[in-house]
Design goal:
With 251 residues, the protein is of the alpha/beta class. It has one domain: TIM Barrel (Alpha-Beta Barrel). The chain has ten helices and ten strands. The radius of gyration is 17 Å and the shape is globular. The N and C termini lie close together (11 Å).
């Protein structure tokens, strides 16, 4: 079984088609991650309407530049997540971003939100699905202060030394369709043991102009198998085990 552990299902206009195509490709479970204050209720709604979609809730680090009221509304967001904690499988997409968010004055708010989300994950004993772009060092420093069941780093593209630190700590790394052209993503696949790899589309992000969808993770699996010189069936079985360990609630 293939599982897309990081997708923004609420952003598709043709979700029926997306889900049907995923099933045809053997993708039978999709984790839909929340990003913004306004998207969280929609993520829950979608998961109640599709038997293959499972919700994760969190605040994406770019929300600080999209929503000027997120700081003052943070308690409401946390309360909403608590109220729906029995429905969700993870806290995500959360993290820090010092690459797409250039305004340094927003970094303290990012950090405040991220700490609150980590505390919530710890409180609810839920895994975290992390965005780390340009802030890998800061995130890895913060993570050591929290007791979390599991940590997944989504689409890692940071320094090799921090990748190796994440490997030492036992973090998981989810691989996107960018494996087709991205040296940093290929490096992750080369260095991370198969027991700590997961699959994701991050759809509807575009890859070389093509909209990302969950069905693409079948090709991601094949490319990982080729890079690591592993039988594709063996690898699929291992990644399914990994997914069950990190996100047990979706099984």
């Amino acid at each position: 079984m293939l599982v897309d552990i990081h997708c923004h299902a609420n952003l598709y206009l043709n979700l029926d088609e997306i889900v049907a195509d995923a099933k045809k490709a053997g993708v039978h479970k999709i984790i839909s991650v929340g990003m913004s204050q306004t998207s969280l209720a929609r993520v829950i709604e979608i998961s109640e309407n599709y038997d293959t979609i499972y919700p994760a809730l969190g605040i994406h680090p770019e929300e600080v530049k999209m929503n000027k009221e997120i700081d003052q509304n943070l308690d409401k967001v946390i309360e909403f997540i608590r109220e729906n904690s029995n429905k969700i499988c993870a806290i995500g997409e959360i993290g820090l971003d010092h690459y797409f968010v250039k305004d340094r004055s927003l970094y303290p708010i990012q950090t405040k939100i991220f700490k609150k989300m980590l505390s919530l994950a710890q409180e609810l004993t839920l895994p975290v699905n992390l965005h780390t772009k340009g802030a890998e060092k800061e995130i890895f420093e913060l993570l050591s202060s929290y007791k979390l069941p599991e940590v997944n780093i989504h689409w890692y593209s940071g320094p090799d030394e921090l990748l190796k630190l994440g490997i030492e700590r036992g973090y998981y790394f989810s691989i996107t369709p960018a494996i087709s052209y991205s040296p940093p993503v290929k490096k992750v696949v080369e260095l991370v043991d198969q027991k700590h790899l997961l699959l994701e589309s991050d759809g509807p992000v575009k890859y070389s102009g093509q909209i990302g969808t969950p069905k693409m993770i079948k090709d991601v699996l094949a490319k990982i198998a080729a890079i690591k010189k592993i039988d594709i069936g063996v690898l699929e079985s291992q990644i399914e085990k990994n997914t069950k360990k990190v996100f047990p609630r979706i099984f």
